[in-house]
Design goal:
Elements: H1 2-15, E1 41-46, E2 49-51, E3 64-71, E4 74-82, E5 91-97, E6 106-109, E7 120-129, E8 134-139, E9 146-154, E10 159-169, E11 175-186
Antiparallel strand pairs: 1-2, 1-11, 3-4, 4-5, 5-7, 6-9, 7-8, 9-10, 10-11
Organism: Soonwooa buanensis
Protein name: Lipoprotein
C-alpha cells in the first residue's frame, strides 16, 4: 500500500513538472529511432497502433516527462508518455520504486510482489472512456508482465534511455499489448 501511495505521489509530481518539450514536430507516422543522447523522444505500439507524446499540455503537465530520484532510501523512476492528440487521451506510465538501475540491465514489469521492502516495477496503459468520462486502466500483474531495459544512464547529465514492452489487463479482463517501446529523455533528478 505504501508503495502504491508513493508511486502515485511521485507520478503526480512528475506530471506537474516541465522537463521536456512538445514533440509535435516529430514524424507522427512512425516510432522515433532508439537513441541514447537525451533527445527527449519516446513511443511504443499499443495493440499495433503508434503512441507518441503529442498535443498540448493539459493542466501545465508535459506530454513526455521522466524522473529518477533517490528518496527514502532508494531510487524511484517514472516515465509518462501522453498522446493528447488522440481522442481517447492514451497514456503509458512506467514506474519503479526502490530499484537502483544499472546500464544494460533488464527489469521485470509486474505487480508489487514484495510489499515488505516496497520493491515494485510496473507498466500501465490508461485511456479515457468518453462515454462515461472515466479512465480505463490496464496494468501489469503477476500474469501480465513485461520488461524494462535500461540502455543508457548518465547521472551527471540526467539522461536515461531504454526500451520496454508489457502486457496489461483492465478490471474487466481486457488485454492491452504494449510493444517496441523506447525512450531517450532528460530526467528530473
Amino acid at each position: 500500500m505504501k508503495s502504491s501511495i508513493l508511486s502515485t505521489a511521485i507520478l503526480l509530481s512528475l506530471l506537474s513538472c516541465d522537463r521536456t518539450t512538445n514533440t509535435d514536430t516529430a514524424d507522427n507516422n512512425k516510432l522515433p529511432p532508439i537513441t541514447q543522447t537525451g533527445a527527449n523522444t519516446a513511443g511504443c505500439l499499443v495493440n499495433g497502433k503508434i503512441l507518441l507524446p503529442r498535443g498540448q499540455k493539459i493542466q501545465n503537465g508535459p506530454v513526455l516527462a521522466s524522473f529518477y530520484q533517490y528518496l527514502n532510501g532508494g531510487y524511484h523512476f517514472g516515465l509518462a508518455i501522453d498522446d493528447n492528440k488522440d481522442s481517447n487521451l492514451p497514456s503509458i506510465i512506467l514506474g519503479s520504486d526502490m530499484v537502483n538501475f544499472d546500464e544494460g540491465k533488464s527489469y521485470l514489469l509486474s505487480e508489487n510482489l514484495n510489499n515488505n521492502s516496497l520493491i515494485n516495477s510496473f507498466g500501465t496503459y490508461v485511456i479515457a472512456d468518453l462515454n462515461t468520462n472515466n479512465l480505463i486502466k490496464f496494468s501489469t500483474t503477476k500474469t501480465y508482465i513485461g520488461e524494462l531495459r535500461i540502455t543508457h544512464l548518465d547521472t551527471l547529465k540526467h539522461i536515461i534511455s531504454g526500451t520496454f514492452w508489457f502486457d496489461a489487463v483492465d478490471a474487466k479482463g481486457n488485454k492491452a499489448e504494449i510493444r517496441e517501446g523506447r525512450f531517450d529523455v532528460n530526467y528530473a533528478p
